[in-house]
Design brief:
heterotrimer, A mainly alpha (291), B alpha/beta (245), C mainly alpha (338), B: 245 residues, alpha/beta, Rossmann fold, 6-stranded mixed beta sheet, 4-stranded antiparallel beta sheet, C: 338 residues, mainly alpha, two-stranded antiparallel ribbon, disordered N terminus
Chain lengths: 291, 245, 338
C-alpha cells in the first residue's frame, strides 16, 4: 500500500489534470447541450490542436501555453466555419446519422494526422519541463500546474461569456428551447456556429495544455472523445460546473487507479464509471432529474 | 357487467392533478365518448387504460379483470386496442405491412395475418393503397390506417384518440361511416375522445364529460348537450343550435 | 428502408435478375480457381466484413439499436475458441459453441441493462463502446490468454485440408466465409418474412405504436441483440483460426467496431444485401487505394482509413439509405417508387 503522501500527491496531480479534462468536456457539453450534436470528432480536434502546438514549438520555439491563445482563436474560427458551412445542414437528422457523420470526420482528421506526421510519438520539452512546485510534502509538476491554471482561466472566461454576454444568453436560450428561440427571431444558425467555435476553442486550449504532459500520437482522438463523453455524462449535460467536477473526478480516479492498481487500469475506471452512471443515474451528478 | 369499468381513478403528474376520482363504464357493443376542454384529462385517461401510465388510485377493469398498471402490450393482449392523437404509422412500411403488424397479434401465421390485414384494409377503404408506403399517405388516410392497424388485432375495445382533428367535414363524415360499419361488423366496443362535436353526436351512444380531471356529467347525447354544467364549462350556448364545424 | 429481397416484378426483369444472381453465384463459387491468391485474400477479407456487418445489421437494421462496440463479440468469440484450442486442443467446431453462448450471454447482459434501464440513443451507443473498451483493457491483463503480447495459434500445414481443426489452404477459408455470408443472408431473409421481421421493423419505426399492437418490445429487442451477438461470435471464431494471432488492443478496439459498422452503413442499413455491397465497396476503395499507393512507391499508413472516412462521409450526406437501394433500383430489383 503506497504511502499516504504518495497517494495524496497522485490525487492532487489528478485534480490538476482533471481540470484540463473538464475544459475539454465543457466544449463537448456545450456542443451537445446547445446544438444537440453528438461530436464524435471532439478528441480528434484536440489531437489536431496538439499537433499544432508541437509544430509551432518545433518551428518557432513558442511555448504551448502561448500558442494556445492563437490556437483558441484559430480553432474558434475553424469551428464556426465548420458548423455554419457544413454541419448545420445535418443538425435535424436522426441521431445515429449525426453520430456517423462526426465519426466520418473523426476518421478523416485522425488518419490525415497519421498520414502527415507518421505514427511515432512527438514531444514538447519546455525549459521548465522537469521543475516542480513544493506544497508541503508534495511535489507538483510546474507543467501540470500551468495546464490547470490555463484550464481554469479558460473555463472562467467561458462561464462569464455564457452568463454575462448577450450572445451567451442567447445561446443558452437556444439550448433551453430551440423552437422558441427561432420564433423569437434569434439567429440560430449563427449561435450554433458560435457554440461550436467555442467548443473547438476550448478543445484547442485543452490540447495545448496537455501537450507538455503527454506523448502526442495521431491515435489519441477516440480515447479523448470517449473520456469527454464519460465526463459529460458523469457531470450532467448542460452543467458547466458538472463538466469541471466530472473532469476532476475522472482525473483523480485515474491517478489513484494508476497508483493503486496498475497504470494500464486507469481507463478501466473511467469506463466502469461510465457504465455505472449510465445505468444508475443517466442524468449525471449535476443534471436535472428530467431525462 | 360492463366491458370497461373505470372506478374512482386518479392520476397526478408532479403535483398536477390530471384525473380526479373518475368513474364511468362503457357497455358492450356501444360507442362511448369522452369530451371536455383541453387539459380535462381525456388523453390521460386513455393512457391510463392503455397502460402508458399507472393510476395513482382506483381501478380499471376490463371484462371484470383489473388492467390498471399493465404495460401496453399486455393491455392489447387483454383485448384493448388504441390509436394515437398524433398518428404513429410505421412510416417506411407499406400500408399492408402496417396492418399485418397489427394482425399478427391475433393470427398464428404470417399468411393468416396478411389475409386478416387485407380484409381489414378492405373494410376501411384502404385496399387500393395496400402497397403504398405509409409515409406517402394523406392525414385522413393515415388516420384510417391507424384504425385499421388497431382493428386488425381483433380487439374487444377500441380507444380512438381525437381521430377527427384536422379533417375536413367530408372526411369526418366518411370516417364516421367507416367507424360505424366496423363497429357493427366486428362487434367492437368503442370509446373515443373528441373535440369535433359533429362526430360525437353522430357516433356516440353515451357521453362522459370531463372538466379539470373530474367527471361532471354522464348520459345520452341529447341530455348532455342540454346539461347546464356542460354548457357552462365546455360547449357554450351555440351547441344547442347544431354541430359546430 | 423498405425490404429489398429481390422481389420479382415483370418477366423480362425477372430473367435479367436471375441471370445477374446466377452470374454472381458462379463467380463466387469458382473464384479460387480463377483469381490470384492476392485477390482471393482480399475477397475473403471483404466477405468477412460482409458477414460481421450482416450480424451487426440484425441489431441496428432490425431492432434500431446503434451498437458502436460490436468488436466486443468478435473478440470474445475469438478468444473463447482460440483459448480452448491453445490450452486444451479443442477444435473450432466445438469451440464455436462456447463462443456463441458467451457472446449471446454478453449481448443479453448488455441488452438487459440497456432496455430495462431504458438506455437508448447516444447513451446506448456509448454503453456499447464502454463494454468493448472494458474488454480491451481487461483482456490485456489476462495472462492465460496471452495478455498484451497476444495469443498465437500454431499455423499448421496450409496445404493439407484439416477440416476438423479448420486449417488448410486459403480456398478453404474462402468457402467457409462464403458459406457464412450465404447462411446469414438466408437466415435474415427467412426472419424478415416471418413475425420477427415484421415486429422488428415495427419496433424500429415506432416502439410506442408497436407496444400498443401487442408487441413485447423488450423481449423482441433482446432477441435481436442476442441473435446479433451470437452471429458475431462465429465471425470471431473464423477470425481466430484464419489470422491465428489475437491482440486485445486490436481486436476489441473502437476502430474495429467502426470497421464493422462501415459495411452496412455504406451499403444500406436494414437491407439484406446492403452489408455485402457495403463491405465490397469499403474493401475495394480502401485496400484498392493502399495498393495503388504502394505500387507508386508510397508507404502510407492511414490512407485506407481516410478513404473509409471519406466514403462514410459522402454516403451519410448524399445517400443516407446506403448504396444498395439506388443500385438495386438501377439493376431492377426491389419495389418501384410509388
Amino acid at each position: 500500500m503506497p504511502a499516504l503522501s504518495h497517494l495524496a500527491n497522485a490525487a492532487l496531480s489528478g485534480v490538476l489534470t482533471g481540470t484540463v479534462y473538464g475544459l475539454m468536456a465543457l466544449g463537448l457539453s456545450a456542443i451537445f447541450g446547445v446544438i444537440r450534436l453528438v461530436n464524435f470528432a471532439h478528441g480528434e480536434l484536440m489531437t489536431l490542436a496538439m499537433y499544432v502546438a508541437v509544430v509551432v514549438f518545433q518551428g518557432l520555439a513558442l511555448d504551448p501555453f502561448l500558442t494556445m491563445i492563437g490556437a483558441a482563436a484559430a480553432f474558434g474560427a475553424l469551428g464556426y466555419v465548420l458548423q455554419r458551412g457544413f454541419i448545420n445542414r445535418y443538425v435535424g437528422r436522426p441521431e445515429h446519422s449525426q453520430m456517423l457523420l462526426m465519426i466520418a470526420l473523426a476518421m478523416i482528421i485522425g488518419n490525415a494526422l497519421l498520414l502527415g506526421f507518421g505514427p511515432d510519438a512527438r514531444n514538447v520539452q519546455t525549459s521548465y519541463q522537469l521543475d516542480s512546485f513544493e506544497l508541503g510534502p508534495m511535489l507538483l509538476d510546474k507543467v501540470r500546474v500551468y495546464a490547470a491554471g490555463a484550464a481554469v482561466v479558460a473555463t472562467a472566461l467561458l462561464a462569464a461569456f455564457f452568463r454575462l454576454t448577450l450572445t451567451g444568453k442567447a445561446i443558452r436560450a437556444c439550448a433551453d428551447n430551440p423552437l422558441g428561440a427561432r420564433v423569437a427571431g434569434l439567429p440560430v444558425a449563427h449561435l450554433y456556429a458560435v457554440t461550436f467555435g467555442l467548443g473547438a476553442a476550448s478543445v484547442a486550449v485543452a490540447g495545448c495544455a496537455m501537450v507538455p504532459l503527454i506523448d502526442v500520437t495521431p491515435g489519441l482522438g477516440p480515447g479523448y472523445t470517449l473520456l469527454a463523453f464519460v465526463i459529460v455524462i458523469l457531470g450532467g449535460l448542460g452543467s458547466m460546473v458538472g463538466a469541471l467536477l466530472g473532469g476532476v473526478v475522472i482525473g483523480v480516479s485515474e491517478a489513484l487507479a494508476g497508483v493503486l492498481i496498475a497504470p494500464s487500469a486507469k481507463s478501466m475506471v473511467s469506463f466502469g464509471l461510465l457504465v455505472l452512471i449510465l445505468l444508475a443515474r443517466p442524468q449525471g451528478l449535476m443534471g436535472a432529474t428530467r431525462r | 357487467m360492463a366491458l370497461l369499468e373505470i372506478e374512482d381513478v386518479s392520476k397526478s403528474f408532479r403535483g398536477l392533478r390530471a384525473v380526479a376520482r373518475a368513474t364511468f363504464a362503457v357497455e358492450r357493443h356501444t360507442v362511448g365518448a369522452l369530451i371536455g376542454p383541453n387539459g380535462a384529462g381525456k388523453t390521460t385517461l386513455f393512457n391510463l387504460i392503455a397502460g402508458v401510465h399507472r393510476p395513482d388510485h382506483g381501478e380499471i377493469r376490463f371484462r371484470g379483470h383489473a388492467i390498471g398498471g399493465l404495460p401496453p402490450h399486455r393491455v392489447c393482449a387483454a383485448g384493448v386496442a388504441r390509436t394515437f392523437q398524433l398518428v404513429k404509422p410505421f412510416a417506411e412500411l407499406s400500408v399492408l405491412d402496417n396492418a399485418v403488424v397489427g394482425a399478427l397479434h391475433g393470427e398464428r401465421t404470417v399468411a393468416g395475418a396478411r389475409a386478416r390485414a387485407g380484409a381489414v384494409l378492405e373494410r376501411l377503404g384502404l385496399a387500393s393503397k395496400a402497397s403504398v408506403i405509409a409515409a406517402h399517405l394523406t392525414l385522413a388516410e393515415r388516420r384510417r390506417l391507424e384504425v385499421a392497424r388497431a382493428v386488425a388485432t381483433r380487439p374487444s375495445l377500441l380507444l380512438l384518440d381525437e381521430m377527427m382533428a384536422g379533417l375536413r367535414p367530408t372526411e369526418i363524415d366518411e370516417l364516421v361511416a367507416v367507424l360505424r360499419s366496423v363497429q357493427r361488423d366486428e362487434g367492437i366496443t368503442i370509446l373515443l375522445t373528441e373535440h369535433v362535436m359533429r362526430a360525437v353526436m353522430a357516433l356516440a351512444d353515451h357521453i362522459v364529460v370531463l372538466h379539470h380531471g373530474e367527471v361532471i356529467a354522464r348520459g345520452a347525447p341529447a341530455a348532455i348537450v342540454r346539461d347546464p354544467a356542460v354548457l357552462d364549462s365546455y360547449l357554450g350556448e351555440d351547441a344547442l343550435e347544431g354541430p359546430a364545424s | 428502408m423498405t425490404l429489398m429481397a429481390g422481389k420479382l416484378i415483370g418477366a423480362p426483369g425477372q430473367r435479367r435478375r436471375r441471370a445477374l444472381i446466377g452470374g454472381v453465384a458462379v463467380i463466387a463459387l469458382t473464384l479460387p480457381f480463377i483469381a490470384s491468391s492476392y485477390v482471393l485474400s482480399v475477397v475473403t477479407l471483404a466477405l468477412y466484413l460482409a458477414y460481421v456487418g450482416q450480424a451487426w445489421n440484425v441489431m441496428m437494421g432490425f431492432a434500431g439499436q446503434l451498437s458502436l462496440g460490436h468488436s466486443l463479440y468478435v473478440g470474445l468469440g475469438a478468444y473463447a475458441s482460440a483459448g480452448l484450442f491453445f490450452h486444451y486442443g479443442i477444435g473450432p467446431w466445438a469451440g464455436v459453441w462456447l463462443a456463441v453462448v458467451l457472446c449471446a450471454g454478453a449481448g443479453a447482459f448488455i441488452g438487459f441493462l440497456a432496455f430495462r434501464m431504458r438506455v437508448s440513443g447516444v447513451q446506448l451507443s456509448l454503453l456499447t463502446v464502454a463494454f468493448a473498451e472494458l474488454a480491451r483493457i481487461g483482456f490485456d491483463h489476462i495472462e492465460r490468454l496471452g495478455g498484451p503480447g497476444g495469443l498465437f495459434l500454431r499455423v499448421a500445414d496450409r496445404s493439407r485440408i484439416d477440416l476438423l481443426g479448420f486449417r488448410g489452404p486459403p480456398a478453404m477459408y474462402y468457402y467457409a466465409i462464403l458459406a457464412l455470408v450465404a447462411g446469414a443472408l438466408g437466415l435474415c431473409s427467412f426472419l424478415l418474412h416471418r413475425r420477427a421481421g415484421y415486429y422488428w421493423r415495427a419496433i424500429r419505426e415506432d416502439e410506442v405504436a408497436a407496444a400498443s399492437l401487442g408487441i413485447d418490445v423488450f423481449r423482441w429487442k433482446m432477441r435481436a441483440v442476442v441473435l446479433s451477438s451470437a452471429m458475431t461470435a462465429v465471425a470471431g471464431v473464423f477470425f481466430a483460426f484464419y489470422y491465428n494471432s489475437l491482440f486485445p488492443e486490436q481486436i476489441f478496439s473502437f476502430g474495429r467496431s467502426i470497421e464493422i459498422v462501415l459495411g452496412p452503413v455504406i451499403g444500406g442499413v436494414g437491407t439484406l444485401v446492403g452489408p455485402i455491397v457495403g463491405a465490397g465497396a469499403v474493401v475495394l476503395l480502401g485496400d484498392g487505394t493502399t495498393e495503388i499507393l504502394n505500387r507508386l512507391g508510397f508507404d502510407v499508413p492511414g490512407a485506407k482509413q481516410v478513404v473509409h472516412g471519406l466514403l462514410l462521409l459522402l454516403v451519410t450526406i448524399y445517400m443516407p439509405n446506403g448504396l444498395w437501394p439506388p443500385l438495386a433500383r438501377a439493376l431492377g430489383f426491389g419495389p418501384r417508387k410509388v
